[in-house]
Amino acid sequence: MSMESSGLKAPRLKSPLGQAIGHGSAHAGTEHFLAQRLTAIALVPLTLWLAFSLLMLPALDFYTVTAWAAAPLHAVGLALLVIALTYHSSLGLQVVIEDYVHANGPRIVLQVLLRLVHAALAVAGILAVIQIATRASL
Amino acid sequence: MSPESRPQTPPQEKAPSRVPSSMDARPVVRPLSPHVGIYRWQVSNTLSIIHRATGMLLSISAVVLVAWLFSLAAGQTAYAQFGWVFGSLVGQLLLIGWTFCFFFHLCNGIRHLAWDADYGFDKAVARKSGMVVVVISIVLSILFWVLALTQVTS
Hints:
Largest sheet of chain A: none
Shape of chain A: elongated
Number of helices of chain B: 4
Distance between the termini of chain B: 77 Å
Number of helices of chain A: 5
Shape of chain B: elongated
Mean pLDDT of chain A: 89
Oligomer: heterodimer
Structural class of chain A: mainly alpha
Largest sheet of chain B: none
Number of strands of chain B: 0
Mean pLDDT of chain B: 86
Helix content of chain B: 55-70%
Low-confidence stretches of chain B: 1-7
Number of strands of chain A: 0
Radius of gyration of chain B: 26 Å
Radius of gyration of chain A: 23 Å
Largest interface: A-B, 42 and 39 residues
Strand content of chain B: under 5%
């Protein structure tokens, strides 16, 4: 690679190893792996509980569902479900982006958007659960 | 790249026994795995792809779940609007699709957790458990909607 043919770019003198060192993350995969499994384990009972609780309700009208969702134990379950679900979704989509989006710009934009959207989803979900629970008790 | 432009590696240095290493100036080009074009299609890789696809679709359903909670918090009118959207034909079809995605991702996720705990990783066992996951997730989806529709009609 000559200086003339590559324009302003200097010849690359660093080895691939030298380029990789200092960029971190080689040891940081375990946390992601564990969090994905932990949220998966939490989602098994939480999602089944929600699905079959709704099935067991006599109807799905506003008052029946509000009364059910406002019960303290149910509100806790719903809040936990929102947290586990948004976290698990964020971790999963993160890997999908890592696998398929290689261009630096789109990759970074998507990874940032992914986290912001999931944080917003989690806050919105938890706030809704709190509002349902507190309004019904008034 | 002409040989004159790389004076740092004269041809005499190219010993045939030398294995390419990460210390080379140029990256070592290795084959990527799996090469979908020449990959023999089988149960495990098909279910792996479906697992990822259903997971991505379920991420959208997470937005719907939060929207449902939000409409319930916002009051009767908003809840009725949500019910109108997901009570429509398109809404019901979406919910049916998400139900299968959910039961498949759930069952196959449990299969993955078992693998992580070092159970059922043998080729034959993994193939069988994959078939079981497909059958169970279809049965649970049908069962769920039979129960859901009897709830609506009762």
